[in-house]
Amino acid sequence: MSTNEGYSKSKIFIFDIDDTIVITDAKIVVTDSDTGKSFSLSPEDFNSYQSSDKHVLNFDEFKSLDILKAGKLIQKYLDILEKNYKKGNAVGVITARDEQDLIFTWLKEHVGFHVDKKLIFAVNDQIHGFEGKIADRKKQAFESFIEMGYTSLTFFDDDKENIKIIKKVADEHPDLNIKAIRAKR
Known about the structure:
By secondary structure, the protein is of the alpha/beta class.
């Protein structure tokens, strides 16, 4: 296993996890509080899911290291991560998941990259204090990288809404080199 302790403090490559780096069988279980009926959504389905006040969401499957380890890695984006990691560029994560430690452990012990924990934002993990919808939380996490002093930021995510919101951040910071790339399988 390699580590990049001396990584760049100005250039960073930031990756979403689900459907960008790995495809898992983890599902979001949606239960209608009126009828008690449930259905499941993949992360891709969740990107276009229309929420309802009657729906109760359960993300428990995303807390399973075993499900994450059993996932299929998406080689194209893993190769980009590895290339930049080996070059000494900083590597970060912005994911809708809610456990920073789970992502850190998975990357280190299963995928083979020791990514600095302070560069991993599981935006639904309460330790970060992000608020709002997932896209808003991802924006707050992205802005945290800017606050850390990064001036060249490349973001990969499969969700077009997340890409749009980062492109807005780029417009707000014309002095920075910000790229938002939609990950496609």
